[in-house]
Structure formats: structure tokens, C-alpha cells
Amino acid sequence: MIIKPRSYPIRLRNLEALHRRLPPSHPKRSLVQDSLARVRAGYQGEKSIDFHLKFIPQKDYLIIHDLRLFDGQHFFQMDTVLVSRKFILILEVKNVSGSLCLNSDIHQLTRTSNGKEDTFPDPILQIERQQMQLSKWIESYSSKLPIEAFVLFTIKSAILHLKNDKDSERILKSEGLLSRFNMIEQRYSEEKINSATLHLIASQMVREHTDVHQKILGAFGIRESELLSGVHCQACSGNMVWKRRAWECISCFLKSKDAHIQALQAYACLRHPYIYNREARAYLHFDPEHIVKRMLVNLGGKKIGATKSRKYEIPL
Ligand SMILES: [Zn+2]
Predict the structure, then answer these.
(1) CA-CA distance, 155 to 146, in Å (whole number)?
(2) How many whole angstroms from 242 Cα to the centroid of ligand 1?
(3) Mind listing the pLDDT tens digit for each residue in 242-251?
(4) Alpha carbon of 113 to ligand 1 centroid (Å)
(5) Region for residue 285 given its phi and psi (left: phi exceeds 0; alpha: psi -120 to 50; beta: otherwise)
(6) Model confidence, pTM
């Protein structure tokens, strides 16, 4: 049973907003584009394992997606965690294509694709760290529950070469998840905790989950003043102007009543989650105070402060 579904990643949403708001000629555009493609592929990969997870007995396993916990010293993030009365299983998903070679002696994963070579961190080290941190986190609830972890490669055409055969115990293609899962289930046939403790541990994990709120502009070294402002057309990215109660694209003449919402949401992702009326007017390139006020109120977020100095939350 899924107790924490996978939500749309905040980092992906912020990168999409940055990509839309960066001028076409900006020198960091390709850097942002690469990062966006990587994060998007990672999310697609994580979603692709849902098919295999459906075959796992739903009543015995509590499934938590996209979990980030604090072990007392550091945060650690796990793509998917399955908790049962017998064991815990961590799944780390990799959506990497090409010919992949893992040398765990020197902790290096190399990818060769179209004659180009890239390196990635050793995923085995990564899951070992997750296992250690999760066992530290769980100590106060139960020290008896064993923690297993796999790295799943989701791209069918990817070719995996493992220098050390023993690594195949923890690294596999996602199609093999179910058969590997059955093997693990046979290994841990004894119940270590009761049903009440299982639910307590799993719900505490969900409660203690903390999202990353990284300042995306800071991460790329981009200033707010370098971003595009105004309302943009969803079809052609052209500028939109307010005409007779609706926005109209000056290039393709598309009309929209709510194009300002996406513009304001980009403001929330990249600049600040709250906005004042005067800031909104400057940002939207649109001056009538009463219309902007209505737009901000209709967003439905919180309002802070008295009438004259009120700021409005921009819900995402
Ligand atoms: Zn347009």
C-alpha cells in the first residue's frame, strides 16, 4: 500500500520555471537545459518502476516514495522505501542510458554513449550510505529490522558491465525487481515487529520527511535581474498584453484569461513565495492596481499585512 505517493519534484518544477524565464541568449542556458533534462529523466525513471511495484503484495508492504530524512547529523534521500514486518527495502533508481561499467574497487561508474565517456558516483556506495543512515534513524524504534537496498537501472537498452560479480546482488535492471524481491522475501521469513510498530515506523518516516528548498538561482549563480519578466504565451513564449479582460499574445494572438498565473508561479519558484501588489504590477508589466489586486486575491493563497502593505502568497 502506498502511504506516500511520488509528488512532482520541487527541483524539476523550479528548473522548468528557470528555463522559461532565462533569456534565449543567456550564457548559462545550456547548463540549465542539461540539468533540466537530467532531473526530468530521473523522475521518468522513478515513475517507470511503479509498474513493477504493483505486483508486490500490497497488504504486507507500506510503500513510501521520495523520502528525505535527517539522521541526526545529515539529511539522506531515498527514491522508494518498502517497509514490512520482516524487513525494509530501499530502492535507488538510475535512469542512465548507454554502456555502463561499474568498477566498485575504485568506486567509479563510467558511461560510454555515442563515443563520449562520462563518470557517475558509485551507486553501491550510495545505497550503503542510505542503509547506514536509515538504520541509525530507525534505532529508536527497532534495531531488529534488517535493511536491504538495490540499485535499479530503468532503461531497457542500457548495457551493464560489473567488474565484480558480487555487485550483481545489489545492482539490477528494473525488470528483475519482482524476482529479486521474492528471493529477499524468502530470506527474511520471520516477523521482526508487529503490525502496530510497522505502522508507527512508516508513518513516522512520512511525518519526518523534509523537502529540499534549494535556492535555484544561487545554485546556478544567476541574479534575479537576469530573468525575463512579464506575461508569456504558453504556445509561442511571446509577450502577452492585457486587452479587453484577457491576455493576448503579440506574436500568435493566442488569448488567455489566466496566463498571469504561470508568470506569478515562476516568480514564486525563482524569487519569492510572496509578492506585493506594486511588485506584481512591475513584474507583470501591467499597471491597473485594482485588476492586479483581484488577480492576486484569486490566487487563493494567504494574505499577510494590512491593506496598504499587504503581501500575497503565490500557491504552487
Ligand atoms: Zn503566442
Answers:
(1) 29
(2) 13
(3) 998 999 999 9
(4) 37
(5) left
(6) 0.85
